[in-house]
């Protein structure tokens, strides 16, 4: 299984970005997916999760109401739409595949993408 994240970049505060994560393999549609982020010197933190079918989602309080996670199982891709971006959203964003149909803790994910850098300027 390989996860390829893309869509990061530099954006001004208040702007939007859409991250994509393309997955290889045949198990995508049967596994939960998640997005995490990490700032140098800090722990990796949960951002958003989506169940295998897309019917359930969860968000960190810090992004609730601004970020939307979605998936297209026909394309083996998960997305993270990020709106109203703030400088504190600056981080490397990682997509990950859960070991089962759902997960929100890092320990519940077994495959990770390489990360894509999001920089929000003030």
Question: What secondary-structure arrangement, pairings included, does this model have?
Answer:
Elements: E1 3-6, E2 9-12, E3 17-23, E4 33-38, E5 45-50, E6 57-59, E7 67-72, E8 77-82, E9 91-98, E10 109-112, E11 116-121
Parallel strand pairs: 2-11
Antiparallel strand pairs: 1-3, 3-8, 4-5, 4-9, 5-6, 7-8, 9-10, 9-11
Descriptive notes:
With 122 residues, the chain is mainly beta. The protein has strands spanning 3-6, 9-12, 17-23, 33-38, 45-50, 57-59, 67-72, 77-82, 91-98, 109-112, 116-121. Strands 2, 4, 5, 6, 9, 10 and 11 form a 7-stranded mixed β-sheet that branches. A hairpin with a 6-residue loop joins strand 5 (45-50) and strand 6. The chain is globular, with a radius of gyration of 13 Å. The relative contact order is 0.32.
Secondary-structure element pattern, one letter each: EEEEEEEEEEE
Question: How many angstroms does the end-to-end distance come to?
Answer: 37 Å
Q: Please tally the β strands and state the result.
A: 11
Rg, alpha carbons: 13 Å
| Overall mean pLDDT | 97
Helix content: under 10%
Q: Which structural class do you get from the secondary structure elements?
A: mainly beta
Number of helices: 0
Low-confidence stretches: none
Specify the overall morphology: globular
